[in-house]
Write a structure and sequence with these properties.
3 helices; single chain; DUF4440; alpha+beta; signal; NTF2-like_dom_sf; about 140 residues; globular; DUF4440 domain-containing protein
């Protein structure tokens, strides 16, 4: 009986511990989802609130943008996203920093021409003023 009770206590603490760790991961996942929605329906104030002032946003073709260029490109550029699905997403939180990796699957148009994207993506998020903000993103072609 004591062994079963001890196991129950251990499992209870394990579940509580996992929930405590996943709280931050859930908050980062929500920030990623907010970013994806803002990319699909770009709005300047929302995009600026998600991006850190020091943003470095790298595209799979090698182009790198700062915060202002990233926001302007989404609002005025030729790419228009209709859907974004992060596949195989992992989130690792360490203090005020988080690393997100996923396969970025999207449907879009480029200058009116339909295009499907499937690229690798790594993002660095940093907690600033109580909010998770995108600090760096680098997309890459998958093999």
């Amino acid at each position: 009986m004591k062994g079963a009770f001890g196991l129950l206590i251990l499992l209870t603490f394990s579940v509580v511990s996992l929930n405590a760790q996943s709280k931050h991961e859930k908050a980062v996942a929500a920030a990623v989802e907010k970013l994806n929605k803002a990319i699909i329906d770009p709005e300047k104030n929302l995009l600026e609130s998600i991006a850190s002032d020091g943003l470095s946003y790298g595209h799979s073709g090698g182009k790198v943008q700062n915060k202002a260029e990233f926001v302007d490109d989404l609002i005025n550029g030729s790419f228009n996203f209709s859907s974004i699905t992060p596949v195989e997403q992992t989130i690792s939180v360490s203090g005020k920093n988080a690393i997100v990796r996923h396969i970025f699957v999207a449907k879009a148009t480029n200058a009116g021409v339909p295009t499907d994207l499937r690229i690798g993506n790594v993002m660095v998020w940093r907690k600033e003023g109580g909010q998770w903000k995108l600090l760096a993103r680098q997309a890459f072609r998958l093999q």
